[in-house]
Specification:
GO terms for molecular function: ATP binding; ATP hydrolysis activity. Pfam families: AAA (PF00004), AAA_lid_6 (PF17866). Keywords: ATP-binding, Nucleotide-binding. With about 325 residues, the chain is α/β, with parallel strands linked by helices. Strands 5-6-7-4-8 form a 5-stranded parallel sheet, sandwiched between helices. A 3-stranded antiparallel sheet has the order 1-2-3, with no helix packed on it. It has a two-stranded parallel ribbon with strand order 9-10. Helix 6 links the parallel strand 6 and strand 7.
Length: about 325
């Protein structure tokens, strides 16, 4: 019998048993792999969503989390295709943060991403609050809640200030809404995604109201308040989109005011990006009133917001 002949070829050890039978034994793959920073072209859904996420100021943890969720779903599908165990995890989420930090915007983007990945059939967003779920008599709440879940089938049910469902005491029908939601989260966990949103501390307390709540939200995303530089960036982007700009004095006035308002307002009262948007919209109207009284003005003047145009909610 011929003796095996060992040869090296292209980094592999080839063991030739005889002229008819050959087999290949691969070297052990190194545990460390260099991962490219550029997203491979087949991940078009992620690339599209990342472009939209890139338009959002800050939110680095949230952006990383969405990429992780995408990777987990994608790899799970590959495992399934290759006959490996691929347990489906519920994707219900909790968004914790103050108003104006982008929670609703991100919920819409997640719906769009999951629709592209065939996780959700429609990817639409149904927004709701306490009044949309809680009824006025026994049985009314359960029916209203079921109707909302039905509307959200194939998409996302987004409940803002969800903690308000547990604030009415023992006789309040909010508890009935919570119990109905928990049941549907279990029975239809892969047919829709529930996102509950609200202030961090209140949402932590809310989770204690029903023993089954905490374990049903495997994904918790924190939305921190914007710092001054981020708020100024939000203002700059809003102005650029509308083809406006701030004069040097107006920019300084806005920055100083934001520093002041963040220092004196209760964090729960400050609406972050929403506050900036309101200032911009009111200031644009104030500029229009000023220009109305002028005899003539050029393109630059039409685009410029001056310090006396700025209108703040506290004025």
């Amino acid at each position: 019998m011929d003796q095996p002949i060992r040869t090296k070829s292209n980094g592999q050890i080839r063991v030739v048993l005889n002229s008819q039978e050959r087999t290949t034994v691969r070297k052990e793959v190194p545990d460390f792999q260099v991962v490219p920073k550029v997203i491979p072209p087949e991940h078009t859904a992620l690339k599209e969503i990342e472009e939209e996420l890139g338009a959002l100021v800050g939110m680095e943890e949230m952006k990383r989390m969405i990429k992780e969720i995408y990777a987990w779903i994608y790899v799970n599908k590959k495992r399934e295709e290759m006959g490996l165990k691929a347990k489906k995890q519920a994707l219900h989420m909790m968004f914790k943060g103050n108003p104006g930090t982008g929670k609703t915007t991100v919920a819409r983007l997640i719906g769009k991403l999951f629709q592209k990945m065939s996780v959700l059939s429609k990817g639409h967003l149904i927004e709701a609050e306490r009044a949309d779920l809680v009824g006025e008599y026994i049985g009314h709440t359960a029916q209203k809640t079921r109707d909302l879940v039905k509307k959200a089938q194939g998409g996302i049910l987004f409940i803002d200030e969800a903690y308000s469902l547990g604030r009415g005491g023992e006789k309040d029908f909010g508890k009935e809404a919570i119990d109905t939601l928990v049941k549907h989260m279990e029975d239809k966990q892969h047919e829709f995604i529930l996102i509950l949103a609200g202030y961090s501390r209140e949402m932590d307390h809310f989770l204690t109201l029903n023993p089954g709540l905490h374990s049903r939200f495997p994904l918790v995303i924190d939305f921190p308040d914007y710092n001054i530089e981020q708020l100024m960036e939000i203002a700059a982007r809003m102005l650029k989109e509308r083809e406006y700009t701030l004069s040097h004095e107006a920019e300084k006035k806005l920055r100083d005011h934001l520093i002041w308002v963040k220092a004196v307002l209760n964090p729960n009262s400050f609406s972050n990006g929403r506050y900036v948007r309101n200032v911009i919209e009111k200031s644009v109207r104030a500029q229009a009133m000023r220009l109305l009284m002028l005899n003539s003005y050029d393109k630059h003047e039409l685009m410029t917001l001056r310090s006396n145009d700025l209108v703040f909610e506290e004025d």
